[in-house]
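User: Sequence recovery, please. Input:
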């Protein structure tokens, strides 16, 4: 009989942490571990808003997977997962002629964009999804500025930026734009007061679920930086020319970035796994109910808190799940009983650009520069956890 085969799909927070635990604990020839990811590198999704605005070099947020994966213990396959069959225990890859079989599958492919049925989002809006998509946003924005300056007509829509969504990623992106726009205006010789940056949110508040005092701080800070908020205002359609709001108002904008939310990865639904908005309500061991040895972690898992409300999908959640997942798989292979998952919140910090942030650490509120230093430390902690001191130092220097 061959070695038990563990296949981990996705080298994001959840997948990479699972593999990190496995390679640390498994003995030689105890199991075959395979990691599949579409890129040869990992990117820190939590920081993508920075290269998207052009305030950070995209190199900062990524590192090669073989820098942190022990290739003596883990086989890395760079390929795109196109589907899987949990009954046959097979995974299908774009460039492989044969299916990849498994004994244990960890599904950690991250989320897809949630459009809430809004017309034109996928066709016309830009999205903060991965390294390539944020490179496009940055280039697109700069191109519109150049076009504005190069044209006789000086069309206002070329220098109008709409950010759909004032949740976590929307606010963090808007914060970065507040830092970047004055520099862009100087670079392209455009007066700052000509430019519009509009943040549109369907919910009645910015950062739904956040402490009110912190939300007020964020709104005041961003408004002082020139952001126009339209709150309680659903976007009805994203067109080639901009957005149409509920009620019919049209805002012409050459740059529309959609950050309104995520749903589970469509590959789960396509495989017939039961989902709620694409996410799988996993059991206490992070298993998809009804399937043997299928584990779903990160943005694709749905976990409820004590008040029966779903936890939002976060890197913090994915990392904790990945840690337990790796440990549990080792325990299972050795005939032991797996531990159940319990999320422990370490706090939340949302950045408002380079120099400010808001956050809750325990029951303590933090704002301003102190909070932004905390945010940097949280980002560096991930590099430290996965790549040790040398990776953290390298990133800190950058
Ligand atoms: C702008 C922004 C800011 C955020 N800020 C925070 C924050 O401050 N704190 C926080 O906790 N959370 C934050 N989040 C949320 C957090 O990034 C996600 O919850 C987290 O990345 C989920 O981890 P994951 O392992 O499920 O997926 P991911 O980290 O998204 O990893 C998925 C991996 O799978 C790969 N992949 C996807 N599809 C395929 C395929 N078909 N084949 C092969 N490989 C594939 C991807 O390339 C990627 O490497 C933020 C998100 C965004 C967008």
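Assistant: Recovered sequence (398 residues):
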């Amino acid at each position: 009989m061959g070695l038990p085969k563990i296949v981990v799909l996705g080298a994001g927070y959840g997948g990479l942490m699972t593999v990190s635990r496995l390679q640390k604990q498994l003995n030689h020839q105890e199991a075959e571990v395979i990691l599949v990811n579409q890129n040869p590198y990992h990117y820190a999704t939590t920081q993508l808003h920075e290269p998207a605005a052009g305030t950070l070099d995209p190199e900062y947020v990524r590192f090669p997977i073989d820098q942190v994966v022990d290739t003596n213990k883990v086989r890395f396959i760079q390929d795109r997962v196109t589907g899987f069959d949990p009954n046959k225990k097979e995974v299908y890859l774009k460039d492989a002629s044969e299916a990849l079989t498994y004994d244990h599958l960890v599904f950690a492919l991250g989320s897809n964009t949630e459009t809430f049925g809004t017309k034109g989002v996928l066709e016309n809006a830009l999205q903060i999804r991965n390294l390539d998509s944020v490179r496009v946003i940055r280039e697109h924005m700069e191109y519109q500025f150049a076009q504005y300056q190069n044209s006789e007509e000086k069309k206002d829509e070329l220098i109008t930026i709409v950010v759909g969504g004032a949740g976590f990623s929307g606010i963090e992106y808007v914060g970065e734009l507040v830092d970047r726009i004055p520099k862009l205006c100087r670079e392209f010789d455009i007066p700052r007061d000509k430019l519009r940056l509009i943040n549109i949110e369907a919910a009645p508040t910015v950062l739904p679920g956040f402490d009110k005092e912190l939300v007020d701080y964020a709104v005041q800070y961003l408004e002082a930086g020139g952001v126009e908020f339209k709150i309680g205002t659903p976007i009805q359609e994203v067109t080639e020319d901009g957005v149409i709001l509920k009620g019919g108002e049209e805002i012409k904008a050459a740059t529309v970035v959609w950050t309104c939310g995520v749903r589970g990865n469509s590959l789960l639904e396509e495989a017939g796994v039961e989902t709620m908005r694409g996410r799988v309500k996993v059991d206490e061991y992070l298993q998809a109910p009804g399937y043997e040895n299928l584990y779903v972690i990160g943005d694709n898992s749905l976990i409820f808190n004590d008040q029966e409300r779903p936890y939002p999908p976060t890197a913090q959640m994915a990392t904790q799940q990945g840690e337990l997942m790796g440990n549990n798989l080792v325990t299972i292979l050795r005939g032991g009983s797996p531990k159940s998952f319990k999320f422990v919140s370490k706090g939340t910090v949302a950045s408002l650009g380079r120099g400010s942030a808001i956050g809750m650490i325990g029951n303590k509120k933090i704002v301003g520069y102190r909070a932004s230093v905390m945010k940097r430390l949280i980002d560096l902690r991930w590099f430290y956890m996965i790549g040790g001191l040398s990776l953290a130092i390298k990133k800190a220097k950058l």
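The chain has a mean pLDDT of 96.
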